[in-house]
Write a structure and sequence with these properties.
Chain lengths: ~350, ~230
């Protein structure tokens, strides 16, 4: 049971290749705009025809270019939540939800609508039109409309992108609850990594039409497999590295040619090294003897955020003319106030926080 | 003064029949063209718009060639004992052809403005093309389609040149109000012409104002989408 996708879609200036499997757990697709994530969803729903490949949902072939199967969207039993919700403006909340089940007996229609209205807690607004609802309410109605047909798969295309931050977190919680009850394949497309992390256990990352990572969320953030995956999961410090020997020592040209120790062994294809900005810490010079990877550095600039300060540093003490920085470090404001007046800065790149990727 | 009101009835009957024909044909062609992606879209559009840009007399001349006794269509219809030229149906055909581009162009514009996600949403909810048209496309484009229908009706009601050439001016049969006005003023009966002018202004104004109220009320909810 589940969804199997193995498709290719060619355009004049863009090509999408997607090969992945989804089980019953919420599955996230993360990527920048233009990465092909929405196109993947459209192919699964049957709104766009792939150039070649196959799509199988619960042992039902929806698309197979070799045997020329292309089930039309209306027969795929796939619920789709559009980015702009696409609620029919000429129909009420109730009529919108009923739209996909008009073929059922009136009594069952009413029963299902009531059930879904309870789920989204909008029973009082059943006679309202979409323009009379807030963005969050519209989104809930769209979710109810997609779920009322009992689809075998639910595709969510950036459902929160039109909402403000506060509402977004709230709707996220609601969606997580709804997905817990939902027994089917759920695909959640977003460009927001926190959203993907909150909602989905398994996350796939797409970049320029290719899959660059597909793994459990925990592992993905600790140890992103590729350079693009590292960047797209918000890692600010990733750069090329050169192994010195097989003992786990590397030299990093872009970080002032420092020599670094990392725990895991070098694997074929590993070309980059990275560390997340909040994992780097400022330490006292005295600890240089007891810790690995402690370096003298120059602060070339900093930027204050609401809770933290982003510090840009250059490793080494050479007074170069350029403002170019090597590392970006995130520290709490309190910590920054403590250390910002010190004559020398030392950064510590903890061995267990460094990761290698290809 | 006006004593014989037949031109008014002929005009209303002609314009209504022509509008009904134009409504369905125009909408079908407009929907097809809105979705047509092939080559020659511009050329096809040009031909469809032609009746509006050409002088009505040119359309009348072309229609005479098409429906005349010696033409293919004329001969074919004669086989069924049907004559078009100088009959009431000629007034309908002339009015429908001239009104068609207004219906087509306006309806197409309305169809093309519909966000494609509405149509895609209907697809994922189990609808086929035909029911999508009636349940989504038409309701969403209704203000535009209604405007197109009114424009087509107004144009059909005012049709003169092509009608005169194809249907002539047979009192009680093909003489519409615009033609009656022309012959009245030509014949020096200014009083009669003036009365007809007043009547046609009143009728046109009534139709436009009434339909504005109707479409405005019923579908005022459309186009108000909050949140984006």
């Amino acid at each position: 049971m589940g969804l199997l996708v193995d498709i290719q879609k060619d355009f004049a200036d863009f090509s999408l290749t997607a090969n992945f499997q989804v089980d019953q757990r919420p599955f996230g697709i993360l990527g920048a705009s233009g990465s092909g994530k929405s196109m993947t969803l459209r192919c699964i729903a049957g709104l766009t025809t792939p150039t070649k490949g196959k799509i199988i949902l619960n042992e039902r072939t929806l698309f197979d270019s070799e045997v020329k199967i292309d089930v039309p969207a209306r027969h795929r039993k796939i619920g789709y939540l559009f980015q702009n919700y696409a609620l029919f403006p000429h129909l009420t909340v109730e009529q919108n939800i009923a739209f996909g089940i008009r073929h059922l007996p009136k009594k069952e229609q009413q029963q299902r609508i009531t059930e879904k209205l309870q789920m989204i807690q909008l029973e009082d607004l059943r006679k309202r039109f979409p323009y009379q609802l807030s963005g969050g309410q519209q989104q809930r109605v769209a979710l109810a409309r997609a779920l009322v047909t009992n689809p075998e798969a639910l595709l969510l295309d950036e459902p929160f992108s039109a909402l403000d931050n506060h509402l977004r977190r709230y709707m996220e919680q609601e969606l997580i609850e709804v997905l817990k009850q939902y027994e089917g394949v759920a695909l959640f497309v977003t460009h927001n990594l926190e959203e993907a992390y909150h909602v989905c256990e398994q996350i796939m990352i797409m970049d320029n039409g290719k899959i660059v990572a597909n793994q459990g969320r925990e592992e993905l953030f600790l140890d992103p497999p590729t350079f693009a995956a590292a960047q797209l999961t918000g890692c600010k410090n990733v750069t090329e590295m050169l192994p010195i020997d097989k003992s786990g020592t590397y030299v990093v040209p872009k970080w002032g040619n420092v020599t670094l120790c990392v725990p895991q062994g070098f694997k074929q294809g590993h070309k980059y090294i990275g560390i997340r900005d909040h994992h780097i810490e400022f330490v006292d010079q005295s600890r240089q003897s007891e810790l690995d990877n402690v370096f003298l550095c120059e602060v070339v600039g900093y930027e204050e955020g609401p809770h933290t300060v982003t510090v840009f540093v250059q490793i080494g003490d050479q007074q170069t003319a350029s403002e170019e920085y090597h590392l970006q470090i995130e520290v709490y404001k309190e910590r920054w106030r403590e250390i910002s007046n010190s004559p020398n800065f030392y950064v510590h790149l903890p061995v267990d926080k460094l990761f290698l990727c290809s | 003064m006006v004593t014989d009101f037949t031109p008014l009835w002929i005009s209303l009957k002609t314009a209504t029949t022509a509008t009904v024909i134009t409504f369905f044909v125009g909408m079908a062609v407009a929907y097809w063209m809105a979705n047509y992606q092939g080559r020659g879209k511009g050329i096809i559009d040009g031909f469809l718009i032609l009746p509006m840009v050409l002088p009505p007399t040119v359309m009348g001349f072309i229609l005479l060639l098409v429906f005349g006794k010696n033409s293919f269509v004329g001969k074919f219809l004669a086989g069924f004992d049907i004559t078009i030229v100088f009959t009431w149906w000629a007034t309908v055909i002339a009015a429908a052809v001239v009104a068609f581009p207004l219906m087509y162009k306006t309806a197409r514009g309305a169809f093309e403005q519909i966000d494609s996600s509405y149509i895609e949403a209907a697809k994922t909810l189990g609808y086929n093309e035909w029911s999508i048209f009636w349940r989504v496309v038409l309701p969403l484009s209704w203000p535009g389609v209604a405007a197109a229908t009114i424009l087509a009706f107004a144009r059909a009601l005012g049709e003169f040149g092509a009608t005169l050439m194809l249907a002539g001016s047979i009192p009680g049969k093909t003489q519409t109000v615009p033609i009656a006005i022309y012959f009245a003023s030509e014949g020096g009966n200014m009083e009669k012409a003036f009365a007809w002018v007043i009547i046609i202004i009143a009728v046109s104004l009534f139709v436009v104002v009434f339909s504005n109220m109707w479409t405005g009320k019923k579908y005022s909810a459309i186009g108000k989408v909050r949140g984006n």
